[in-house]
Amino acid sequence: MNTAVLRTEARLLAREPGSLFWILVFPPVLLAILGAVPAFREPQDGLDGLRIVDTYVPVTVLVGMIVAGVQSMPAGLTGYREHGILRRMSTTPVRPSALLSAQMLVHAVAAVLSALLALAVGRLAYDVRLPEQPYGYLLALVLAVVVSLALGSVISAVSRTVKIAGAIGTAVFFPMLFCAGVWLPVQAMPDVMADVVGLLPFGAAAQALNEAMVGDWPGWAHLGVMAGWTVALSVAAARWFRWE
Amino acid sequence: MSVIEVTDLRKSYGGRTVVDGVSFAVEEGEIFGILGPNGAGKTTTVECVEGLRVPDAGRVRVTGLDPVADHDRVAHVLGAQLQEGRLQEKLTVREALQLYAAFHPNPADWRPLAERLGLGDRLGARFGKLSGGQKQRLFIALALVGNPRIVVLDELTTGLDPRARRDTWQLIEEVRDSGVTVLLVTHFMEEAQRLCDRIAVIDKGRIAALDTPAGLIRRSAGATVITFTPSAPLDEEELSALPALSSVAYKDGRITLAGGDETVNAVITLLARRHITAHQLRVSDATLDDAFLDLTTTDLTTTDLTKTDLTETTS
Ligand SMILES: Nc1ncnc2c1ncn2[C@@H]1O[C@H](COP(=O)(O)OP(=O)(O)O)[C@@H](O)[C@H]1O
Ligand SMILES: [Mg+2]
Fold this sequence. Notes:
- The structure holds two protein chains of two kinds.
- Chain A is mostly helical.
- In chain A, 75% of the residues lie in helices and 0% in strands.
- Chain A contains ten helices and no strands.
- Chain A has helices spanning 3-14, 17-36, 52-82, 85-89, 97-126, 134-158, 162-180, 191-197, 201-213, 220-240.
- In chain A, helix 6 (134-158) packs antiparallel against helix 9 (201-213).
- The longest helix of chain A has 31 residues, at 52-82.
- Chain B is of the alpha/beta class.
- Magnesium ion is lined by residues 42-43, 83, 154-155 of chain B.
- Magnesium ion binds at residues 42-43, 83, 154-155 of chain B.
- Chain A: The chain crosses the membrane at residues 20-40, 55-77, 98-122, 134-157, 164-184, 220-241.
- Chain A: Pfam families: ABC2_membrane.
- Chain A: One of its GO terms (biological process) is response to antibiotic.
- Chain A: Keywords: Antibiotic resistance, Cell membrane, Membrane, Transmembrane, Transmembrane helix, Transport.
- Chain A: One of its GO terms (molecular function) is ABC-type transporter activity.
């Protein structure tokens, strides 16, 4: 990790209004809008007495992460390769891998910020309880960030151009949002659907976050699913990634 | 002392050999040019020197180090300006210079460097907003900002206007005078002739000649070119019999002869004997252009000469 590269990448991300909006602004705004619907603030029997706005806090936490990992980062990395920026860096004493790790780190930080914003909006505007098992929540959150970056790395590895990365990113984006529960929070999914979604990284993440939210230690199965995907995706990315 | 040694370098892509046994050595403190037509294998060769490409065969040494195996140590002594590539669109000139300076242990002061390259008033501009020439000058600055012992410049002045080109040449001479060794890739004759101490002419992946610019010109078949418009027709056979003649060409009533000093004297004698006046008589020494054409095309025939408007390149 090279601090000059890291500082530069942080500055550059701060100059991307599109990425900033979709990672940092959109998720908390989405939560605010959902919470503004009175019916979503009524406890639901089908959700063990939770309100719909409660179930959407982990969803919006994951949305920022998915945008950061699957849309913003792969486009950036692929552009760095396509435009010869990684190659130019190879002629300096600093390895181009410094650029990769800096991109990952700034997107990870943005994703975590987005999660904190979503939690804060839920807590302040709609009185959503903060996670009752904070350590378990943090662990699930970190695993979710890591798996989304690993997924983004694979997208960048298989995309020759920024356009392709954008297309793959979008194709992956909506199924990932579905798993995270944007259309139907996992608590409200039929059991079979919840089980299937739970085998995918963001379905597992949603369930792990929900468990920690209500005070339980997140299930090892869910954490294991995220860890397993992280390993598999990282191996694939390392194998397929080309520097030029 | 040779700071770059390339021995029998070979590289092919998909079964097509693009660098086919290239050898040369660059001495400390010189400007060494690699000159050749597009696709000759120049970029491939210097990118092997930079460690960006791995040779199929042969040996490359930069200050005695292997640029692939000893990448980090070579990167400390060698600065590179690549033929292609961009920077991040929203990175400013100042940030790019600061960033690349931070990569090196003893960087140059980037402010005077930017000033010297005419970027002083563009420091706050983003890369994406720079003109082609400004981008090119920024890349040159980035190659120099690490205070390298050796700098490799690939198509240095492509995209620059004539004035910026001359300024850049002067900068490169200053860089050399400060003790830096320069490996320069170009397809501009004027650039090679003006800057290079020695030139390797590469054609189809092989070195066709390696000499000083003057040496290359001396070798070229028609070292002196005589053109004129005769007031009356001249006998072609008589012309062809001129001493030391290497070629004759006729175009739009003008005659172009390539040969040596003897040819000049003989043609003047011939004209006087026939009472023919030579209108717009021009006698010029061959340029690197001519030498280059000699070296990079297999046989320079009369037809080739007719196609090349020599009056333009030699006047
Ligand atoms: N990465 C590559 N893959 C395939 N062919 C290449 C590659 N790089 C260069 N070539 C081919 O090798 C030849 C020499 O290229 P290059 O070294 O760039 O020539 P020059 O710099 O002299 O114009 C060209 O025909 C080019 O198309
Ligand atoms: Mg080239």
